[in-house]
Amino acid sequence: MTIAQHYLDFATREARGVSATYERLASAVSRDDELLARLGELPEAKRQPNLLFGVVRLLGGPVDDPAAFRDHVLAHWPAIAAEMGSRITQTNEPGRCAVLLPVLAALPQPLALLEVGASAGLCLYPDRYAYRYGDHVVGTGEPVLHCAAEGAPLPDRRPEVVWRAGLDINPLDVTHPADVAWLDALIWPEHAHRRARLRAAAAIAAAEPPLLVRGDVLDDLPRLAAQAPPGATLVVFHSSVMYLVPGDRREAFARAVTALPGHWISNESPHVIGHEGLPEPPDGGHHNVLALDGRPLAWTRGHGQAITWFG
User: Fold this and answer.
1) pTM of the prediction?
2) CATH 3.40.50 region(s) of the chain?
3) What is the pLDDT of residues 143-166, one digit of tens each?
4) Is 78 exposed, middle or buried (0-12, 13-18, 19+ CB in 10 A)?
5) Distance (Å, rounded) from C-alpha 24 to C-alpha 179?
6) Beta strands 136-138 and 263-268: pairing type?
7) Which of 33, 81, 124, 139 is most buried, taking the most CB atoms under 10 A from its CB?
């Protein structure tokens, strides 16, 4: 896929109906030869729309108007390129816990959670958030995670978590203002509710920080998993992370996580894990596949805003 096609696909499949601002920007970039040439100077893994847009927002650039965005990027390209080269997209969306909850709550309790690609670890607190699936409410307090659910086996209670740990090549610290600023910059412009959710989730994590380990998703997984307490069900999970991992290492990761005791929950784009025989997704938007131990269960939206069960 060319860079232009990638940006156009992002505009039509991921941003459409979710962020009009990013749909306009991505569409404009896909037609702009000069911006595409600049992006072509970066390594392939550093060309993603979310990384470009997040860095521009972090550095105080405009994103509301494509023409102003273009002028700003071209005028400040050395600084923007340097920032893109040193960062990775680490959207830490606690809303994804809403699509994980039906699976987590059904496993033998208590749980020892290990998130691969944990960023700041905000998805390691599914037992601390409240959930609303239409009229079905689970838990109390803030933040409240809203999720449209179709056919999912909704639990009546939150899981019991006795250990939580995360593995990331660049873990973020929610007690560090610069790290929180990057998480904020990665939230799409119109999503004020996600910013409020980030602040509430960050306060929970800062009060009781998880164990976050800097390491490789494959090489360092067994060592961290071995630290899980006996008597708890180990759950290794990841959401929208594996597209950053080369295909051969994804396959090796799948073998490694399957060999561990406990369970494996993946929430990734359908082409990333390679599930076969999937039903058609609910609509033309971008969906992830929620799977338990390699068995597909549901379509989910990227920020946890919807789940359609088929398992």
Assistant:
1) 0.87
2) 94-309
3) 999 999 999 999 999 999 999 999
4) exposed
5) 27
6) unpaired
7) 124
